[in-house]
Amino acid sequence: MILPPGRPLARLLGRIVLHGAWIALALAAAILAGVCIGETAIPVGTVWRTLANKLFDAGHALDRIDQGIVWNYRLTRAIVAACCGAGLAVSGVILQSLLRNALADPYLLGISAGASTGAVLVTVAGVGAGAVSLSLGAFGGALAAFLLVALLARASGGGVGPRAAGQIVLAGIAGSQLFNALTAFMITRSASAEQARGIMFWLLGNLSGARWDNVGMAVPVAVAVTSVCLWHARALDAFTFGTDSATALGVPVRRVQALLIGCASLATAVMVSIVGSIGFVGLVVPHAARFIVGVRHVRLIPAAALMGAMFLIAADVLSRIVVKGQVLPIGVITALVGAPVFALILVRRRPAR
Amino acid sequence: MMLAAHDLGWSARGAPILRGVSLEVPEGETLGLIGPNGSGKSTLMRLLCGVLKPEAGEVRLAGEPLARMSRRRAAQWLAMVEQQAETADRITVRDAVELGRTPWLSPLRPWSAEDDAIVAEALAVVEMSGLAARDWATLSGGERQRAHIARALAQRPRILLLDEPTNHLDIHHQLSILQLVATLPVTTVVALHDLNQAMSCDRLGVLQHGRLVALGKPQEVLSPALLRDVFGVRASFLTDPADGARIIRFHAVS
After folding, report:
1. Same structural domain, B156 and B247
2. Are residues B100 and B41 in the same domain?
3. E strand or H helix that includes residue B213
4. Whole-prediction pTM value?
5. Chain A residue closest to B82 (CA)?
6. B147 and B238 in one domain?
7. Which element (helix H / strand E) includes B133?
């Protein structure tokens, strides 16, 4: 049964290079657009020259302010947006596939709410006394929320099968409500008016704080999570007919579930800790991607990552230009765009039966 | 022995489902498992393929304990066709059958022309080649069952486990699937509901209240006494004038 891996492996490598190249190109174009478009439009040439100056010390003569805006604000913002979009979309793909539920996404299953609670616990309530970072708090909260939701779903008769699909969504709603209430409780109790306003803004999703240290966090996480999922693409496919079927197909189900759900929680937690909780990306983008490239994860995961990245960059651009002189929370944009698109997909994908 | 179970036991929420089941299946045999509803057939099937871990006893594949094999290696040995495995995903028949190659592939051992050939052959065996591009949602129950069997065959297993493969099918498809199973060149364990259909197996195991109460040739196992004790029916045996085969007719015990 074991074949000489020469030709198929070479073909695989070729495919990775080819698709990797155009995905990188599309991503770069999206980021470039995200940098150029804004309340003050910045010409592409200025962006190029800034990049050349910063990366290769090209020494172009440029307006210091323009250069600062491009390098320190717009570029970091666009990159963080891309990473968040990709991370959340891939998390959505994982959860939808492993839980066999089209409605699963980090937001709906309470993971985002848990991450918010964790982050607020650290920043406002001062848990960990400075030793625990906001991201770590968000990660802990995300994991706690997911465990709680998973246990609740199991206790309510979940597990496998079509009934469990409904149970985990109900459990997720309960979990979200609980963690949102905890967050609100802590904010009203401990936060000053100034802090509270800032946190509420952050909770709705806000990219304006994105700087290079956030980029250093978001890029590795997004790349790592996407790669791990891509590595397990075949295992994710094997869940098509449920967990028992996956076991019978030779997938170590528990291990794969733990690893990939851990990845989804990590990605969500890190993204929420940087930009707040942004809904709808993890739900809508995987469905849109499936609509275009089909259900096989080898294609679905890169497609979802790319579309998530582009979607969030576009949403961020919109959030900056829709209302003059004001930046809308990005969560508002993703939901305003995402909900109708999702409705459209629901209607168009109505099963034939 | 190709497949051996020794003293298997399993319980759900404290209630014993299966107790002390031992059986051996030699290479090439078709073993039928019969028993009333809730007698533990499905549980035994799931233990045999390793989806469930036995609480007591062990399963061995060609002498090697199943519990010590990796999932991947176990899946290269045995394939399972579940009673009802459904999906809401938009996949084609070919997609479903290609899943059978999962235990043979890895990121470093990608899909090859040989896998294409194996999938095409599996589709041909179940006579689904013409339907390969069809949407899963448009298939009838019988077509889905045949696609599941093709998926299991694409796994190239040495042992095939089928849990009531003829459930919910019309009589034509029941017969064609049983005929198909009988001709497959692998060791097979098949849980069945229809006792007349079970007559065509090489040997039969009878489960009652989680215990294996009989194991042997169909003619010896399916005695009037066993049918009364296990299934609660009175049976009369008829002979089909067409081919001389024995047929059981069932009556309620009055």
Report:
1. no
2. yes
3. strand B211-216
4. 0.86
5. A245
6. no
7. none
In order of their start, the domains of chain A are 25-348 (1.10.3470.10)
Q: Could you report the per-residue pLDDT of A250-302, keeping only the tens digit for each? A: 999 888 988 898 888 888 888 887 888 788 888 889 988 988 898 899 999 99
Residue B159: per-residue pLDDT: 93
Q: Which two tokens stand for residue B54?
A: 């036995």
Which of A7, A240, A353 shows the shortest C-beta gap to B137? A353
Which residues in chain A (140-179) have CB-CB distances under 8 A to chain B? 162
The SS3 assignment for B33 reads: strand
Residues B122 and B141 both lie in one domain: yes
Instruction: Report the 10 Å Cβ neighbour count for A21.
Output: 10
What are the tens digits of pLDDT across the range B40-86?
999 999 999 988 889 999 999 988 999 999 999 999 999 999 887 88
Q: What are phi and psi of B141, to 5 degrees?
A: -55, -45
Nearest CA in chain B to A237: B99
Beta carbons of A295 and B95 less than 8 Å apart: yes
In B128-167, the residues whose Cβ lies within 8 Å of chain A are 135, 137-138, 155-156
A1 shares contact with chain B (CB less than 8 Å): yes
Task: Please tell me which residue of chain B has the smallest CA distance to A7.
Answer: B112
> Is there a contact between B51 and A247 if contact means CB atoms under 8 Å apart?
yes
Distance separating alpha carbons of residues B189 and B182, to the nearest angstrom: 11
Structural domain boundaries enclosing B239:
223-254
Question: Does A247 contact B70 at a Cβ distance shorter than 8 Å?
Answer: no
